[in-house]
Amino acid sequence: MLELADKMSGDVSSLPSLLIEELHSHFSEAELAELILVAGQANLNNRVGNAAKQLLGK
């Protein structure tokens, strides 16, 4: 899951097939969906925070 979270911070148009297979062997579809949403939200929060610091000078 940590590798997926790391990959989600970049280009996610083609995730490694081995990673997808491994995730499916450990998590259900519902669990994967929740993990993807949590990782995506954390990524969004970090990007917005970084942009705000640069734009607002804080």
Contiguous helical run count: 3
Order of secondary-structure elements: HHH
Oligomer: single chain
The total beta strand count reads 0
Give the terminus-to-terminus CA distance: 32 Å
3D structure, described in words:
- With 58 residues, this protein is an all-alpha fold.
- It has a domain at 1-9 and 29-58.
- 78% of the residues lie in helices and 0% in strands.
- It has three helices and no strands.
- The longest helix has 28 residues, at 29-56.
- The termini are far apart.
- The mean pLDDT is 91.
Strand-helix topology:
Layout (H helix, E strand, L loop, with lengths): L1 H7 L8 H10 L2 H28 L2
What's this model, at a glance?
The protein is mostly helical and 58 residues long. It has helices at 2-8, 17-26, 29-56. The model has no long low-confidence stretch (mean pLDDT 91).
Question: Keywords for this structure?
Answer:
58 residues
